[in-house]
């Protein structure tokens, strides 16, 4: 009787182990399929000629933040800054391990004697940088919300920082207002600054008087 009980217990253990391993295998295969399948990108709204994504939070100085986990935040420049910058030849960003503050100047985009500086939307320690953008700054200009991200930050107080950023309908209203104010700097007929379909031209810096650049930096990038 005892032998039968031991044998039965042994068989139950084998069955449980088989079911657990099978479940783990299914999960692993599912994870592999998910990793192999590219995640669809959100379709941005076009506001005042510039793209705005609802899953991002924006600093009024035209940088964005995306919470990837409780403490990890990805950072980049927005479409407004990207289109204004034009043909950037070099980008300076913080190094890994550097502590940055919200509102601190951390990005410098260099082009044709006119530099564009941008502030951080978040506070924390830089834990990753986009080396591809350092090698080819055009990536940040052409795909600012995707492959053109700049840094990742370990932000222990991210929740508080995000309260100071703009999102949703507030971000769209802010972008629309920024686009309207930018048009006042452009002499006619360049004042429209947009292609057919309402998308702003790339390299808007060429449509703006050089004499106004310092004022533009203060008004839009809070420098």
What does this entry look like structurally?
With about 220 residues, the chain is of the alpha+beta class. The protein has two domains: about 1-35; about 45-223, RNA polymerase II/Efflux pump adaptor protein, barrel-sandwich hybrid domain (OB fold (Dihydrolipoamide Acetyltransferase, E2P)). The protein has helices spanning about 1-35, 80-85, 130-135, 140, 160, 170-185, 215-220, and strands at about 45, 50, 55-60, 65, 70-75, 90, 100, 105-110, 115-120, 125-130, 150-155. The strands form three sheets. Strands 3-4-5-11-10-7 form a six-stranded antiparallel β-sheet. Strands 6-8-9 form a three-stranded antiparallel β-sheet. A two-stranded antiparallel ribbon has the order 1-2. The protein is globular and about 45 Å long. Residues about 1-40 have low confidence and may be disordered.
Low-pLDDT runs: 1-39
Tell me the structural class.
Answer: alpha+beta
Mean pLDDT: 82
- Kindly identify the CATH topology of the largest domain: OB fold (Dihydrolipoamide Acetyltransferase, E2P)
Binned strand content: 15-25%
What is the radius of gyration?
A: 24 Å
Percent of residues in helical segments?
A: 25-40%
Task: Quickly count the helices.
Answer: 7
**Secondary structure: number of strands:** 11
Q: Would you kindly provide a brief summary of this structure?
A:
By secondary structure, this protein is of the alpha+beta class. It has helices at residues 2-36, 79-85, 131-135, 138-142, 158-162, 168-183, 213-221; strands at 45-47, 50-52, 57-59, 63-67, 72-77, 90-92, 99-100, 105-111, 114-119, 124-129, 151-154. It contains 7 helices and 11 strands.
């Amino acid at each position: 009787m005892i032998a039968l009980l031991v044998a039965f217990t042994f068989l139950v253990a084998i069955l449980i182990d088989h079911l657990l391993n099978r479940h783990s295998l299914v999960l692993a295969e599912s994870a592999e399929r998910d990793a192999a399948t590219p995640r669809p990108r959100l379709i941005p709204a076009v506001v005042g000629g510039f793209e705005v994504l609802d899953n991002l939070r924006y600093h009024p100085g035209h940088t964005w933040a995306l919470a990837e986990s409780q403490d990890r935040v990805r950072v980049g420049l927005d479409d407004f800054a990207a289109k204004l910058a034009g043909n950037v030849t070099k980008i300076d960003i913080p190094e890994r391990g550097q502590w940055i503050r919200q509102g601190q100047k951390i990005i410098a985009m260099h082009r044709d004697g006119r530099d564009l500086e941008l502030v951080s939307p978040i506070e924390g320690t830089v834990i990753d940088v986009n080396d591809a953008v350092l090698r080819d700054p055009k990536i940040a200009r052409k795909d600012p919300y995707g492959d053109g991200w700049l840094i990742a930050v370990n932000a222990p107080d991210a929740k508080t920082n995000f309260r100071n950023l703009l999102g949703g309908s507030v971000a769209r209203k802010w972008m629309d207002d920024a686009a309207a104010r930018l048009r006042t700097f452009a002499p006619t007929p360049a004042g429209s600054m947009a292609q057919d379909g309402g998308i702003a031209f790339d390299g808007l810096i060429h449509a703006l008087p050089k004499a106004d650049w310092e004022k533009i930096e203060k008004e839009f990038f809070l420098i």
